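Justification of resources, computational component.

The compute hours requested in this renewal are based largely on the per-chain cost of generating structure records like the one below. Each record pairs the submitted sequence with a full structure-token output. That output is archived, and it is also reused by downstream analysis tasks.
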Amino acid sequence: MKSLTLAILIFSLLSVSSIQVEASDNCKIEEIIVLGLTRTEESVVLSQLPFSEGDVWKEEYRRWTLRRLQLLDFFAYDPLRVIVEPIEDEKCRVIVRATDPTVLYKEPMKFLLTNAVNLLFRQFELSLFNPGGIGSSFKFYGSWGNYRNLGMTVSSPIGAGIGSAGGQIYSNSTGFYKESGLVFKGDYSNWVDPSIRLTGGIDYRTGELNEQKQIIMLPRGELYYDNEFKGEIKTSAGFFFTGEKPFIRLQGQAMGELGSFVGLIRGGFIAGANPPLNYHYRLGGFGLIPLRGQPVELARNFLLGTVEYHFQTPQFIPILFADGGWYSPGGEGGNINIGAGLAMEIPLGVIRADFAWHPFRGTTGFNIGFGHSYRPPF
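The structure output for this chain reads:
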């Protein structure tokens, strides 16, 4: 009987010791440990942390850390974790777990499927994820359809954020205009708190628009919010080196969910005497939601919204949606689009198909791809 009691006691102690205990707020950080890295230097991760040894732990640091590390865009999708362990009275250690992917991809199956789809649409994209281990990644991309381009971007940690710079050769015939030339871009982005990301950048474009010389410098700024809802505000100003008057471009969007309902609203405004056509807003089609059931059109000002209802089922998610709004110039014939979709969770994420119809124009649209189409990139 004593042996049985002792065995139960030992088993209970081992069970308790195997349970991971999280420290609470207000513990002093005595130690920071980084696990899981095989190629990346530990200093790259440490530079992104919003805390250091000796600070008092706050729960908001967890989400803040994860978002800064995700912004670097070269760690594997899973696992990426922040664990806080108690050491002794009001003291704790923080363990950051981040796994390196291979140099060429994070997830092999998604890499194969994405590249297959890209080739189908006559485009390619190849990333080298942090090949030197110091946090710098390289992206090469191009296409050979109506929009022909070839470009490269390099990104690297700078302080607590990430900077990027790149160049692109382009040639484009849209039906609205023809353009060709070179563009150079530089950006810096940082999560300044767990919910707000700020980005600043500048573009320099030189080339031709409808056989007219075009040289523009565009400083840009962006504020992105992600907490109770997702929202984004972007602003830029165009300054010409060819004598035209400057213009200002302002746009924003917000997305929220309430039960089975999802809502998205987008708006934009361009001020200036004669803003160039390649900086007008492109509305319509599935890549520029709302207005999924009508062809792409150009506009200087717009305010559009979409509402979706997602049926709750175990595997497939049937969806009903409606898009609508106002834009100028254009927008004749009633800007209401309705449709239905079907989404499914798979190991690589969400795959979704949508069919949209414009009842006044009689036009339709169909799209299938990865991700929720009602959530355009923020």
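The first helix runs from residue 2 to 18. Confidence is low (pLDDT under 50) at residues 4-21.
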